[in-house]
Design brief:
heterodimer; A: Ubiquitin-like (UB roll); 11% helix; flat; B: 255 residues; mainly alpha; Ferritin; 10 helices; globular
């Protein structure tokens, strides 16, 4: 299997350099929002911010304006390790593996989140 | 309700509404001009909160208005001297730090006011509203205080600019805590709490943030005043010209 490459290049911008603390730069944070208790946090986009607290505030203002969630995670984009879509066939492509799908029994109607 | 009580209630509701409305309008001026996309959403979010609070207060005031004006007429069709907001909120936005510092001062003040109002008011409508408004003010304080801290300790230049903001806004702070006969009566009649008693709590909250921000708050004294009597600063006429343009050009225009 080819070496997994780190694709995500940290995007930095200078517009806020006067106000962004020691480094003078804002970095990109990935934002994950949980719609409601019991579900998982889903990736919904990214924000620029100079530190983690400001990233959380920015995420709140950009992604939960219409009550979309009850909890937010932010993670530095550079901390995310990602696979390379170019090599998906020999890594995450599932191919013809029907036996992996739960298609052989009935899901009760009342079960919503499965 | 006696006509005297009605006039009192109208006046105090109008003051609160105008403070929120005019600051909401000022902050909305950042829409499309903020330094980053994130702030370009955060500031209008806050402006909309403030204008929303003003709308509820204008609705309450409308019910006790002897001239029977509705919320839109109160918001958009009064003359300059009929607005009763403090001078602080009508000042021009200045740079981002000026706007943030004013928001910080105002939202700490309003947070304390709504907190005390829900405890003391006997006016049910206001009590119910104070609960919701308080929660929104907690966020405004959080947002603005985090920025004050970062601008205060960010760079030499950002610190210098914030010291300038503190200096420039200082003459307008005292008026927030000004108590006149309307306030005293509103306090006796259990409509609003005693505003003067917030001053120490307000200073404490500002000090706590300033201590971490390399900023210093001077003496809070009553310097510039007049907004509560309808005497505004020069910039207010220009603000109203833009704010009222639509309703004056197309009377009764609706979405």
């Amino acid at each position: 299997m080819p070496q997994e490459a780190l694709r995500r290049v940290p995007v930095r911008r200078k517009v806020c350099s006067k106000v962004a603390g020691q480094s003078g730069e804002e970095i990109v944070w990935e934002v994950f929002v949980r719609p409601k208790n019991g579900l998982g946090h889903k990736h919904c986009g990214s924000v620029h911010a100079c530190d983690k607290d400001m990233a959380l505030l920015a995420a709140r203002d950009v992604y939960t304006r219409r009550g979309e969630g009850d909890s937010i995670w932010v993670v530095k984009s550079t901390d995310i390790v990602s696979s390379n879509p170019t090599y998906k066939d020999n890594f995450v492509g599932s191919g013809e593996k029907n036996y992996r799908y739960p298609a052989f029994y009935d899901v009760p109607n009342d079960v919503e989140n499965i | 309700m006696s006509s005297q009580d009605q006039a009192l209630l109208f006046e105090v509701l109008l003051r609160l509404a105008d403070d929120n409305f005019i600051l909401g309008h000022r902050i909305s001026e950042w829409c499309g001009h903020a330094p980053t996309l994130e702030e370009d959403l955060a500031l209008p979010n806050i402006a909309l909160d403030l204008i929303g609070h003003a709308q509820v207060l204008y609705q309450m005031a409308s019910k006790v208005d002897v001239a029977k004006r509705d919320e839109d007429q109160l918001a958009f069709l009064r003359l300059e001297h009929e607005y009763k907001n403090v001078l602080l909120v009508e000042q021009e936005n200045g740079h981002f730090g000026d706007t943030i510092l004013r928001l910080f001062y105002f939202s700490v003040f309003m947070k304390l006011l709504w907190k005390r109002t829900k405890e003391v008011t006997s006016f049910d409508e206001l009590k119910f509203f104070a609960e919701k408004a308080y929660n929104e003010m907690v966020y405004h304080v959080r947002y603005s205080s985090e920025w004050v801290r970062r601008l205060g300790i960010g760079t030499h230049e950002s610190n210098c600019r914030m010291l300038g903001s503190v200096h420039n806004l200082a003459p307008f702070v005292g008026e927030l805590f000004l108590v006149d006969s309307f306030d005293r009566e509103a306090q006796e009649k259990k409509i609003l709490p005693n505003i003067a008693t917030f001053l120490e709590d307000w200073k404490k909250e500002i000090f706590e943030v300033f201590n971490k921000s390399n900023l210093r708050l001077g003496v809070v004294a009553l310097e510039k005043q007049g907004g509560r009597l309808g005497n505004h600063t020069e910039t207010f006429g220009y603000l109203l010209a833009e704010l009222q343009y639509l309703q004056r050009t197309f009377p009764g225009a609706k979405w």
